[in-house]
Structures are given as structure tokens and as C-alpha cells.
């Protein structure tokens, strides 16, 4: 028994060396957001935002941006340390931003640096910014105490309703995977606000196109089921109504994948009319007309989106991966060669279950 206790004590003694040393929060600078801006073919400007706590109750923190320009993000971080009174700690990093010009050149090397850091979580948000990430991070916004918190909440609620879900885990999964391509939120600073303006389409790690916010909602319908979001539809001349998505579901049907492939995408949307000025939605005979109008508009736009993806040779929906999962002996090279010309048809079915408060 004594021998057994000695073994346990000795084992615990050895394990104490395996735990990382504790860091006192007051002794470090917690980086909550980073932004990368293009400078030249070889240099990138790294902007790290830290929130500096203030003394006193209910006193919001002050955000400070540290900047350095160099060839690698690791070296830039070292240069930033040279002007900081405390060492940086990125274990609380919540979002990484990439300037649109930089995204057109490719962002994998910068993402790879983050994914190799064991202190970072896999739910780190990523986004592409029109213009300077430094300018965006330095701005004080009345809607939130720090830019990083503003960005975090902005992306979180938009990914639930308007744009496809994406974080560093999703990006890397689609980057390394075959038959699929990444997408990222597209942001723009507008005065003292930050706006989600759409979705960036990437081929591997390079931005090759974008979709506006309204089309991002439809892209989300083609990729994943969800239960939020609003879409505006033209009914008749000078008459518009909006549908609030209560539940959506998407299914895919592949035909003759090995020889002459074709794809049918079926999207089912159950929603309610949330706004319809000049339209008597309380009239039951109009509900079917509203459903047909919504289907016509959504069918037209979703099929245009698919054609745009094919023209850019990006598989944002992940159809190649879906076809591979359903086909024995699937040939990725043949699929990639055929992808731009594959007949892909989207069929949207809309069911209006409620007509708002009037019903």
C-alpha cells in the first residue's frame, strides 16, 4: 500500500512540470483582434488591438492598436512588443481581419501562423475588410465598448441570419478539403459603424469575387439549414413584401456523376410575411400569389448565384465534396474540369405559414 502511494505521489510530482505557467492578467496585454494590411509584395502591416482595463466601477476599457510592418507576422509581433510596456498574449484573440487587397494576393500564410498557435481556439472569427483594417480597429464605436466586441457581436448575429457561418476551423476545412472552397464575411467601415456588406468568395486562399448581402442570404440557403433572416420580394408595380425565414432546408440530387453530371438543388423555405405595405395580406386568396412571387424571385437569384460561382470556378456550396460522398470511384480532376459547365438547377419552394399580426 505504501509503495502504491509513493508511485501516485511521484507521478503527480512529474505531472506538475506539464502544466503551463499561469499568467497574471495585469501583467500582459490581451490581444482581442488583429488586422493585416497589404503594404507590398513582400510586406504586411500587422495591427494588434488590445483592450486596456481602467480603474473604477463601470469604467469601459480603452482600446489601443499596436502596429508593425515586416515580412512575417511573427516578426511583426516582436516589433510590436518593442513599444508595449507588457508582453502580448493572444490566447483571447476573437477575430482576425484581412484587407481586401491582401486577400486578393492570398492569406494562407497568415492564417497558418494563427492555426499553429496552441493557445488559440478553433472558433476564431475571420473576415475580409474593404480598405484599411488599421483604420477600422482604431475607430471608437458608440455601439460597443471596444471594436473587437462590436465585431464579435456583429458577425455572430449576421451568421445566424444573413451570411454563411464561417470561422478559422471552417476556413481551414474548406481550404484543405477537395471539392469545396472557403468563404468569409465582407466588412466595410461606414462612419462610426461597421457594416456587413456581403460574402467574399475565395479560390483556395485568394478572394476572387463577392456577393452582396441580399445574395449572401440566398447562398446561405444553398449551403445550410437555418431559421432566421429576411428577404424582400417585389410583388407587383410599387408593391413589395418581406419574408422572414422561420425554417429552411436544402437537399441535393446528383445524376450521372461519372460521365455527364447534373445537379438539382431543392430549397424549402417556411416563413411569414413580416412587412407588406399596400398589400392586404389578411386576404387568404393572396397568400398563394405571394408564395409564387417569392419562389420566382428566389429561383431567379439563386440560379444566377450558382452561375456566378461556376464562372469564377469556385465551389462555395461544396458540390464536389457532396458528389464524392455519394459516388464510388469519384474523380476530382474530372469534376473540376467539368464544374464550370455542369447543369445545376436550383428549385426554391416557399410556404407562407403566417402573415404577421394581421393573421
From TrEMBL:
Gene3D superfamilies: Nutrient germinant receptor protein C, domain 3
Keywords: Germination, Lipoprotein, Membrane, Palmitate, Signal
PROSITE patterns tied to this protein: PROKAR_LIPOPROTEIN
Location of the Spore germination GerAC-like C-terminal domain: 198-356
Coiled coil: none
Membrane topology field: Lipid-anchor
Cell compartment(s), UniProt: Membrane
Source species, domain of life: Bacteria
Residues of the Spore germination protein N-terminal domain: 22-188
PANTHER family documented for this protein: SPORE GERMINATION PROTEIN B3
Family: Belongs to the GerABKC lipoprotein family.
UniProt protein name: Ger(X)C family spore germination protein
Organism: Fictibacillus norfolkensis
Amino acid at each position: 500500500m505504501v509503495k502504491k502511494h509513493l508511485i501516485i505521489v511521484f507521478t503527480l510530482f512529474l505531472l506538475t512540470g506539464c502544466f503551463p505557467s499561469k499568467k497574471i492578467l495585469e501583467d500582459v496585454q490581451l490581444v482581442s483582434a488583429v488586422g493585416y494590411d497589404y503594404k507590398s509584395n513582400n510586406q504586411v502591416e500587422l495591427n494588434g488591438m488590445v483592450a486596456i482595463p481602467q480603474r473604477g466601477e463601470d469604467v469601459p476599457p480603452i482600446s489601443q492598436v499596436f502596429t508593425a510592418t515586416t515580412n512575417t507576422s511573427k516578426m511583426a509581433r516582436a516589433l510590436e512588443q518593442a513599444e508595449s510596456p507588457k508582453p502580448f498574449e493572444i490566447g483571447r484573440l476573437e477575430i482576425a481581419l484581412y484587407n481586401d487587397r491582401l486577400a486578393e494576393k492570398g492569406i494562407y500564410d497568415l492564417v497558418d501562423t494563427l492555426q499553429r498557435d496552441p493557445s488559440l481556439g478553433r472558433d476564431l472569427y475571420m473576415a475580409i475588410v474593404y480598405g484599411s483594417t488599421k483604420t477600422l480597429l482604431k475607430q471608437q464605436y458608440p455601439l460597443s465598448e471596444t471594436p473587437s466586441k462590436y465585431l464579435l457581436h456583429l458577425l455572430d448575429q449576421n451568421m445566424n441570419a444573413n451570411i454563411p457561418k464561417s470561422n478559422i476551423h471552417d476556413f481551414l476545412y474548406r481550404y484543405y478539403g477537395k471539392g469545396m472552397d472557403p468563404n468569409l464575411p465582407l466588412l466595410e467601415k461606414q462612419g462610426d459603424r461597421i457594416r456587413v456588406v456581403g460574402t467574399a468568395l475565395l479560390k483556395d486562399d485568394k478572394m476572387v469575387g463577392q456577393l452582396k448581402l441580399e445574395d449572401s442570404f440566398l447562398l446561405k440557403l444553398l449551403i445550410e439549414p437555418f431559421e432566421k433572416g429576411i428577404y424582400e420580394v417585389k410583388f407587383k408595380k410599387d408593391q413589395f413584401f418581406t419574408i422572414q425565414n422561420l425554417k429552411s432546408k436544402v437537399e441535393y440530387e446528383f445524376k450521372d456523376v461519372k460521365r455527364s453530371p447534373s445537379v438539382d438543388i431543392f430549397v424549402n423555405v417556411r416563413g411569414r410575411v413580416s412587412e407588406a405595405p399596400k398589400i392586404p395580406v389578411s386576404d387568404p386568396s393572396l397568400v398563394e400569389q405571394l408564395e409564387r412571387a417569392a419562389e420566382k424571385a428566389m429561383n431567379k437569384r439563386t440560379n444566377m448565384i450558382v452561375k456566378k460561382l461556376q464562372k469564377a470556378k469556385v465551389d462555395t456550396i461544396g458540390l464536389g465534396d457532396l458528389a464524392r460522398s455519394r459516388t464510388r470511384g469519384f474523380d476530382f480532376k474530372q469534376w473540376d474540369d467539368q464544374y464550370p459547365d455542369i447543369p445545376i438547377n436550383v428549385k426554391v419552394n416557399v410556404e407562407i405559414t403566417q402573415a404577421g399580426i394581421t393573421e
